[in-house]
Amino acid sequence: MRIVEINASTNYNVYIQQGLLDSCGDITAKLVKGRKALVISDSNVAPLYGERVCESLRRSGFETSLFVIPAGEESKNPENLIKAADFCIDSGLTRSDAVIALGGGVITDMAGLCGALYQRGVAVVQIPTSLLSMVDSSVGGKTAVNLSKGKNMFGAFYQPSAVLCDTSALSTLPKAEYSNGMAEVIKYAVLRSGKLLSLLQDDADKVIDEIVEECVRIKRDYVCADEFDRGERQFLNLGHTVGHAIERSSNFGIAHGSAVAAGMCIVARACANMGICSEDTAKLIEKLCVQFELPIDSEIDSETLFDASLSDKKREGGEISVVMIRDIGECYLHRTTTDFLREILSKGRGGKV
Ligand SMILES: NC(=O)c1ccc[n+]([C@@H]2O[C@H](COP(=O)([O-])OP(=O)(O)OC[C@H]3O[C@@H](n4cnc5c(N)ncnc54)[C@H](O)[C@@H]3O)[C@@H](O)[C@H]2O)c1
Ligand SMILES: [Zn+2]
Predict the structure, then answer these.
(1) Which atom of ligand 1 is closest in space to residue 43's alpha carbon?
(2) Residue 268 shares a structural domain with residue 235
(3) Could you read off the pLDDT of 121-136 as tens digits, one per residue?
(4) Does residue 139 belong to any structural domain of this protein?
(5) What's this model's pTM, rounded to 2 decimal places?
């Protein structure tokens, strides 16, 4: 089994192994005193894996209950958060019991927040089932639901007690969702290069456990350096400033991963055109995106994207941070004005969709 230790304000392990769903009970039993577990999942994942997880928990002596919300980003809202918390009460969950998040990022974010708030915090075990949630959302302690006026606006930093990545669950993940997750994987490869880059150039499906492990290690390093997102962690926003603008301009019709891939390629081409990185570097990033069926540009015009990026929550008083690419494995944070973003948008276009 692959294990990545996270030493944040609390210490916990990320376990990566095929078939791990069947041992979630054993791992949870070692971490929590209570013997009640509330599994929170969505309407796609619960029918596939809910019973297996509950059975493993029961084998380890847990009394289980399962709370299911409709699949999709719209479900990540305060109403479902409160329903989940009410269900915790109905299930008799006490402070020594556990919330188990079983699903993609929507579930790991919402169940994480539910665990953080219920009785001021119970143990949360994250069982991410999408590639994106394995490599990104379940590690690092950011939990949230969306408000009608903004995504992820209502949340908390709350580290889980453990994260269990059963990569065999990826076999049922829709192909487009797999590609979405791959956009974040490519982001880590651009940030750090090295092993991950060569793993991606192999037959990625065959080395997916190693890929997940490597991504978790990279995310771990950024999270441990800056748990509360005040500096280092902003590197993880590579491709996201433009990506968020693409998501917002498309009214969230373009998926996050696709938007981030296009955003990363726009920044890479702009960096190449400004002489900050080489043409080859920008081409390699485009090639990786194409390899995983991700877009390398957007049809939305630059003015629309610029307007959308002005309302990005990361903008602080006319200043923004953009992650720039000098080379693969050599990125830097550029604190700049929104005018510079206009330049990136004008110099970075032209990739074929
Ligand atoms: N907390 C963080 O640090 C962080 C980081 C990145 C993203 N996020 C959040 O994560 C969310 C996106 O995550 P996501 O892409 O996993 O979305 P998601 O949870 O909506 O999952 C995508 C789709 O795949 C389905 N699915 C998941 N696993 C499956 C499986 N094994 N088999 C079949 N279907 C499966 C889901 O039901 C859903 O329909 C967003 O809400 C985003 O804000 C959080
Ligand atoms: Zn992202």
Answers:
(1) 37
(2) yes
(3) 999 999 999 999 999 9
(4) yes
(5) 0.95
pLDDT number for residue 212: 98
Q: Whose alpha carbon is nearest atom 2 of ligand 1?
A: 137
- Residue whose CA is at the smallest distance from ligand 1 atom 20: 72
Q: Is the CB of 106 under 6 A from ligand 1?
A: yes
Q: What is the pLDDT of residues 205-226, one digit of tens each?
A: 899 999 999 999 999 999 998 8
Do 112 and 86 share a structural domain?
Answer: yes
Tell me if 58 is assigned to some domain: yes
User: In the chain, what percentage of residues exceed pLDDT 90?
Assistant: 86
Residue from 149, 180, 181 nearest 248 by CA: 149
CA-nearest residue for atom 35, ligand 1, is 173
The Cα–Cα gap between 10 and 141 comes to 10
Q: What are residue 25's phi and psi, to 5 degrees?
A: -60, -50
The one-letter amino acid code at 133 reads: S
**What is the β-pairing status of strands 2-7 and 11-16?**
antiparallel
Give the mean model confidence (pLDDT) for residues 64-73.
Answer: 97
Is 353 a domain residue?
Answer: no
Q: How far is CA 301 from CA 143, 172, 250, in A?
A: 33, 35, 11
What's the 260 CA to ligand 2 centre distance in angstroms? 7
